[in-house]
């Protein structure tokens, strides 16, 4: 049986997160539960861990531990749940962004361009919008925007144009159909890289990932108490840039605002100031780790 998900930067992230074994912690991206189980090992009998995951398939991975609660919702609502449960302020929050190994390796979920399956990409299968809906209904200018914004694709305009021309009279609903449709735009020398960027853009749009991350980072400033730690692992430049800007400047534009004494007005201090990346040993053992960057913030 294939492992649901191999957690990236497992020990460094949990070591950075847990500084009070009696505290309340949040795992914003439960997935296969690897990080959660490691966190629980560091907690005392008084400690608590609240985890979030909108994917129903992750529920089967929940550990049987009275200190643990798994909430089947988008992490963008973490503040509301913590406030309702009267658990604020919490001691720390961990977010391992992106998609799980399980989601990538199941063709029916539609996340991987290398597998046959429907153009789905919904992390929450109860959601209405799928990747096929975007491909078949979005106007050309909106398609161009998401491919340029979320995929950083240089020929986003041509890609959007070809999609709109090809979908006339037919519904594009599978990976194979879609790859044939955009073949004229796909570089012959680097097809996998290009398709990964296209699929990333669609996945981000389907799941509202950047909006959810922005909401999570804002909520972390309200949820985490003074001295508490925020640990975020990202897998592409869009996510990492947002996290970096938030930790270093307190906003998402990277605009450094200072008080009358010249101190940067931000809720967290980045410690360290640079991203932490996996070593060669981990990358060789888990290819998904190659693009990971971890940033840590300590609440002021």
Description:
By secondary structure, this protein is α/β, with parallel strands linked by helices. Helices cover 39% and strands 14% of the residues. It has two domains: 10-101 and 209-299, Vaccinia Virus protein VP39 (Rossmann fold), CATH 3.40.50.150; 107-207, DNA polymerase, domain 1, CATH 1.10.150. It has a seven-stranded mixed sheet, sandwiched between helices. Strand 1, helix 2 (34-42) and strand 2 form a beta-alpha-beta unit. Helix 1 (10-17) packs across helix 2 and helix 3 packs parallel to helix 10. The protein is globular and about 60 Å long. The mean pLDDT is 93.
Give descriptors for this structure:
seven-stranded mixed beta sheet; single chain; 300 residues; alpha/beta; DNA polymerase, domain 1; 2 domains; Rossmann fold
The CATH topology of the largest domain is given as: Rossmann fold
Q: What percentage of the residues does DSSP assign to strands (E)?
A: 5-15%
Separation, N- and C-terminal Cα atoms: 44 Å
Q: Approximately how much helix is present in the residues?
A: 25-40%
The CATH architecture name of the largest domain reads 3-Layer(aba) Sandwich
The first-level CATH class name of the largest domain: Alpha Beta
- Write down the secondary-structure element order: HEHEEHEHHHHHHHEHEHE
């Amino acid at each position: 049986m294939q492992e649901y998900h191999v957690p990236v930067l497992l020990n460094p992230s949990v070591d950075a997160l847990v500084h009070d074994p009696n505290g309340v912690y949040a795992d914003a991206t439960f997935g296969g539960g690897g990080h959660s189980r490691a966190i629980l090992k560091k907690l005392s009998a008084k400690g608590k861990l609240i985890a979030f995951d909108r994917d129903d398939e992750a529920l089967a991975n929940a550990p049987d531990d009275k200190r643990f609660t798994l909430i089947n919702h988008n992490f963008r609502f973490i503040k509301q749940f913590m406030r309702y449960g009267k658990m604020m302020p919490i001691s720390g929050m961990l977010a391992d962004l992106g998609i799980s190994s399980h989601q990538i390796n199941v063709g029916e979920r539609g996340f991987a361009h290398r597998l046959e399956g429907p153009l789905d990409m919904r992390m929450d299968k109860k959601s209405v919008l799928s990747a096929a809906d975007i491909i078949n209904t979005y106007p050309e200018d909106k398609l161009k925007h998401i491919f340029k914004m979320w995929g950083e694709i240089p020929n986003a305009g041509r890609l959007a144009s070809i999609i709109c021309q090809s979908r006339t009279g037919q519904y594009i609903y599978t990976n194979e159909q879609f790859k044939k449709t955009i073949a004229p735009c796909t570089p012959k020398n680097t097809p996998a890289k290009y398709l990964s960027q296209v699929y990333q853009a669609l996945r981000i749009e389907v799941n509202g990932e950047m909006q959810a991350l922005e909401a999570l980072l804002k909520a972390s400033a309200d949820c985490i108490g003074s001295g508490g730690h925020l640990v975020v692992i990202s897998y592409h430049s869009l996510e990492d840039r947002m996290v970096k800007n938030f930790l270093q400047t307190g906003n998402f534009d990277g605009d450094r605002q200072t008080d009358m004494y010249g101190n940067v007005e931000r809720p967290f201090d980045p410690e360290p100031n640079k991203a932490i990346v996996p070593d060669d040993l981990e990358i060789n053992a888990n290819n998904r780790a190659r693009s990971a960057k971890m940033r840590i913030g300590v609440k002021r």
